[in-house]
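Q: Hi! New to this. If I give you a protein sequence and the SMILES for zinc ion, can you show me the bound structure?
A: Yes, paste them in.
Q: Okay, here:
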Amino acid sequence: MNVFKNFILTLLIFFFFPFTSLSQKNLHGPSLNGKKVIYVYGGMKGHSPKESVNLFVPILEKEGASVKVFDNFSVYEDEKLMNEADLIIQIFTDAFTSDPRMNNDQFKGLRKALVNGTGFAGWHGGLGDSSPNPLYHFIVGGDFVTHPGELKEMKTAEYEVKIYDKEDYITNGISDFKISGSEQYYMMIDPNVKVLAVSEFKLNNWPTDENEIKGSFMPVVWKKNYGKGRVFYSSIGHYLREFEIPEVLTMQMRGFRWASEGKYHPKENLISPIYKK
Ligand SMILES: [Zn+2]
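A: Thanks. Here is the predicted structure of the protein with zinc ion bound:
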């Protein structure tokens, strides 16, 4: 049934995207046409890593990207492929603690590629996890803490994603929208990343009544640099069905396009300190 549902979702997205979701202005924005993409998937099955390949690779290819797919991190040690890559998409929950996991040499290869201008992008736990690697968190710009609420509360809960930066290519023209019955990520975030969308915690305390988080606002979508490389992250996407929301898919694809262009443009200054006086 799930396979069938994913198939239908792929068909719907394949035929209606990107024609229905791009404004005229963005037709001349960043592009995946001719770009080399490495797609690494794996980790917790509950995040549908394999199914995400089936969903996204056809869309990326339709936009003209050449995509190589891997179910482990060995490609990060392949200097030739990493040198050629314009974008690495990583949907691999708990990259440093899963089996297989990213070893030191692979992490070094990833960093080298980003320094040279390869982009790094993904969503939810596939990129922003709670692994014990502070430098990895620094690269991504944040790490996962929790998704407050019991499963039964989450099933009926709803949170609103508010566009914080309306001028950026990735969020331009996107309206605020709601996510229902899924995980709202509470994260630890570098206060210098360029935040594009946020959400408010309205329902829950965490971990128990001893601590209140009601009224907290949390970045949901952001961008930053690592070296010349462009990094894009969105915490939405526990369930793949969330990409049926046009705003979610549009932002994700724009994030991929933007992150794939680090080698072709002068580095943008994306340091956006919120505590600067
Ligand atoms: Zn999740």
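A: The domain at 2-142+219-259 is CATH 3.40.50.2300 (Rossmann fold). Let me know if you'd like me to explain how to read the tokens.
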